[in-house]
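Try it yourself: sequence plus pyridoxal-5'-phosphate, in.
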Amino acid sequence: MASENMVKRPEPQRGVLEIEPYVGGRASAERGTRIFKLSANETPLGPSPRAKEAFAAAADKLHLYPDGGALGLREAIAARYGLNADRIVCGAGSDELLHLLAQAYLGEGDEAITTEHGFLVYPIVTKAAGATCVTVKETALHADVDAILDAVTPKTKIVFLANPNNPTGSYLPADEVRRLQQGLRPGILLILDAAYSEYVSRNDYEAGIELVATSENVVMTRTFSKIYGLAALRLGWMYAPAHIVDVVNRIRGPFNVSIPAIEAGIAAMADTDHVDAARQHNDKWLRWLSEEISKLGYETVPSVGNFFLIRFPKEQGRTAKDADAFLMKRGLILRQMTSYGLPDCLRLSVGSEEANRLVVKALAEFAGVKAAV
Ligand SMILES: Cc1ncc(COP(=O)(O)O)c(C=O)c1O
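Structure, out:
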């Protein structure tokens, strides 16, 4: 009691002050410069016009609470992917779902595993739940199933795997993900974060639907922020076994997804032409950018997402930081990767044709090479 009286102000629970606050992709450059934001893996095509219409129409309902269960949206998602709507939970971005899963399944003394260059939200949600984040080595910028399994201890409760991973752009084939799941104790939750799955066109890739449907310890999270172009609305969903759906529904806010998000999400999901166009744009320009930037002498890391890493030399004046400053002056905003343990890389999101050409031109200038754009 006496020691309680010594405390001068409210203290957060253990772990919270160890969190490095998440710093998102920058959105501004020097005043007066036209800006191309290529730092947050947003889609250059923007949202479906049908989603914009649905969003605008939702203005008439701003005084109403949303349907707390987001049933219409869950049914739209279920119909699109052939799922049971009861096994879906929607959230304010997949970030919220990651937080809820960590809150529900982690506590003091527990461990969650993530990989060396994994998405930075995983350590945040882990520490916010009072647990410890164990980071395992990757092999050539790919998650390493054996390394993950070797890191499992009796304290492990969650394994986070972004597939494909941000920022590396690498992915694990379905048989590797299955091997990972089979190597985990049934009491360990495997979270497959498939935020970029709609961009992947590889025969050996699966987002995780099958694995969720056939096991009791796998959850797949998805987002409307990337290919659907609804990042501003904060909308994500997860597909999970019934017992996990029940747990998350008990702790989530009762109205965690807004009416404009629900209605724009339903419309976005129905506009498959828009999604196809976004995928085609990405396929074409991801290839073009990687090839052109490689021709300038930079290593580009192969990616199945809508972004990729560019590696810069360590020589003064030619580093990733120097390149970033050079590009920023031209309104081209990329993402620095120091916080991801990749200080000699910048991450570039695939942009509009105009932005892509400007990036290659500016990088050619920076490298002192002539570009064919
Ligand atoms: C791997 C990964 N997962 C999840 C998210 C979060 O997405 P949302 O906007 O749905 O919260 C991102 C966003 O950058 C991401 O890169």
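One thing you can check immediately is this: The mean pLDDT is 95.
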